[in-house]
Amino acid sequence: MTQHPLAVTARDLVKTYPGGVRALAGLSIDVRPGEVFALLGPNGAGKSTAIKILTTLARPDSGTATVGGHDVIGHPGRVRRVIGVVAQKSGSDPVATGRENLVLQGRLYGLSGTAVRRRATELLDRFGLASAADRPTRTYSGGMLRRLDVALGLIHRPQVLFLDEPTTGLDPDARTALWDEIARLAAGESLAIVLTTHYLDEADRLAHRLAIADRGRVVATGTPDELKSSLRGDAVHIDLQAPPGDEAVVLRALAAVPALREVTLDGRRISARADDGAGAVPAALAALDQAATPAAAVTVARPSLDDVYLRHTGRRFADADNAAGASALAAMAGAR
Amino acid sequence: MTAIAAQTWWMTQRRLTALARQPWFLLIMLIQPAIWLFLFGNLFRRIVELPGFGGGSYLTYLAPGVVVMSALSSNMWAGMGALEEIERGTLNRFLVTPVARSAIMNANVAEQALSTAVQSLIIVGLAALGGASFAGGPAGIALLVVAAVLLGTVFSALSNTVGMLVRQRETIIGLNTMLLLPLTFLSPAFMPAALMPGWMRRLSDANPVSWALLSAREALASDPDWGSVAWRGGLLAALAAAMVALSIRTFRTYQKSV
Ligand SMILES: Nc1ncnc2c1ncn2[C@@H]1O[C@H](COP(=O)(O)OP(=O)(O)OP(=O)(O)O)[C@@H](O)[C@H]1O
Ligand SMILES: [Mg+2]
Fold it and tell me: What is the position in ligand 1's atom list of the atom closest to the CA of A18?
């Protein structure tokens, strides 16, 4: 059999949930064999929905997708044999031990008794669960559960591993440990990894390539460096001493500074780009003083993924995430 | 087919292990029928004196009734387990592996069948200790257990279907509370249909609980009419198969809402 050139393809996936929520509005991605691909997006961007479709759990309203060369709609059975899935919710069985969970999982892929026991022991060691292997998983910490979930996804040596928010809810140490393990997986086995995350630093650290998702579609794709350097020049951030009374005044003042491009104002925070960030700062500060809206702090940095997100969606990543969280809270409050 | 059989075995083993690790739950499952045997056995003891009942020991009459009522009431809650597995993400984890949908549902049925069989035999044992007699002997008792298991299958599959479709604990609780007593009392569990008003008797005829009871009591008689056992038992088996098929189909509807 010839190796399909792409581990995952998704073309124009659309999914509307009952009740009219449009979770995906034409999402397309390509994942190459052996690479770590991150789908980065705020709450509600459609990341989990995309993963559910690619892993044959849900069906799209329209669009096509292949995983390991198999069509997810036409041949879900073939897709299931080549994928490992770590969903956003831990699906392990709380009354069974870690080892029992792994052995059952291997059995479902048709592994024989000795093969599955050997593989379970190997994975328990590898994910630092050997000493807890024979305890019911309801006694595991969040980090241990998450590591067990990843081990469950790997039991049958899949070609493509899907990780839906693998580190959400973990403390910083547990997160770093899991990052190391994912990075090792990506290096060691000829495994393609598709992970979703809301953490810019996670995507930056783990992904060979990433797609930024917003409101059910991909707004930018590339390597982290490509995406950052597509924003020619430096990011200049200026915090004002107080929120301006009239935003237009500030924007007009800065428009008169030729070195600055793409100026946006969000509360007290001004973001802009400049080929030579440090060189542009004095003129910018002077212009702000002139406009009687003096600056409190200035930073000049190489662009971050947050800047990339801002550029493509017009919103800051954290704001989009908080807004989604806040509206979810409001919806919950409304439902009471 | 062999793959499905193997998968069903692994999935059943998982559920039985989980069950064995909840001794309190098992104990309650056994204490409850013991209470029913004792309460109803004493409360209705003199019912046998009513003309039309036919005399004999009330405990002997009641024992199959309690077996069937217990099978009904413990299997009705199957949907709660299904809901918990949906909420925890366990069902979704299985659905993205190569495991057959039918193996997942068959494992539920197998686990319920085994626990219903054990529960039924223990009730028979308790009743025998209390002085009930089982004229039909081991064959009659075996058929009583089969009838209880089939009835349990009907209601556990129904409960799983409702759980997967409605995804709400309250609905299952409401449905069970609403159904348990009418289904039990609109059957000859405690009193022969001959003593019921006519409209009740007609409802009782259409009640699967009655089918289970009538075929089991017939099988337990000293000289059973096997035709009547087979006819009602067959009806019950067909209903059980249909309910399981329906619950497997529900996966498709469930996956639309995932
Ligand atoms: N089963 C469902 N039924 C109805 N609506 C749903 C369902 N699952 C997701 N949605 C809606 O679809 C949209 C996308 O959800 P999705 O879970 O894919 O987002 P996400 O990017 O994974 O978000 P998060 O970061 O919060 O996990 C959201 O508006 C969500 O409310
Ligand atoms: Mg999600």
Answer: 4
Q: What is the CATH number of the domain that holds A250?
A: 3.30.70.2470
Closest CA to A271 of A232, A310, A241: A310
CA-proximal residue: ligand 1, atom 4 (nearest): A17
Q: Which residues are bridge partners to B84 per DSSP?
A: none
Token pair 């045997």 is found at B37
User: Looking at the structure, do residues A201 and A240 belong to the same domain, yes or no?
Assistant: no
Of A209, A227, A245, the one marking the end of a domain is A227
* Average pLDDT value for chain A: 89
Distance A173 CA to ligand 2 centre (A): 22
Per-residue pLDDT tens digits for B185-230: 999 999 888 888 999 999 999 999 999 999 999 999 988 999 999 9
Residue to substitute in A49, A52, A322 for testing ligand 1 pocket (most ligand atoms within 8 angstroms of CB): A49
Least confident of A112-126, A136-150, B30-44, B167-181: B30-44
ipTM: 0.87
Please tell me the distance from the alpha carbon of residue A147 to that of residue A110, in angstroms, as a whole number: 23
DSSP code for A190: S
**Nearest CA-CA distance, residue A269 and chain B, Å:** 40
pLDDT above 70 as % of chain B: 100
Compare CB distances from B96 to A55, A59, A90 and report the shortest one's residue: A55
Count of the separate structural domains present in chain A: 2
| Closest CB to A108 among B91, B99, B258 | B99
**A325 inside domain:** no
Express each pLDDT in A4-40 by its tens digit: 589 999 999 999 998 889 999 999 999 999 999 999 9
Q: Do residues A236 and A223 both lie within one domain?
A: no
Domain residues for A281? 232-302
Residues A41, A177, single domain; the answer is: yes
Residue A45 has a pLDDT of 93
Q: Express each pLDDT in A181-236 by its tens digit.
A: 999 888 876 899 999 998 888 998 999 999 999 999 999 999 988 888 777 778 88
Residue nearest to atom 17 of ligand 1 (CA): A48
Q: Are B95 and B245 in contact (CB under 8 A)?
A: no
* Angle (nearest 5°) at CA B243 between B237 and B246: 145
Q: Which residue of B has its CA nearest to A112?
A: B6
From A227, A243, A271, the end of a domain falls on A227
One domain, residues A214 and A251: no
Quote the CA–CA distance of B90 and B84 in Å, as a whole number.
Answer: 9
> Has residue A117 been placed in a domain?
yes
Coarse DSSP helix, strand, coil percentages of chain B, rounded to the nearest 5 percent: 80, 0, 20
In B, minimum Cα distance to A78 occurs at: B98
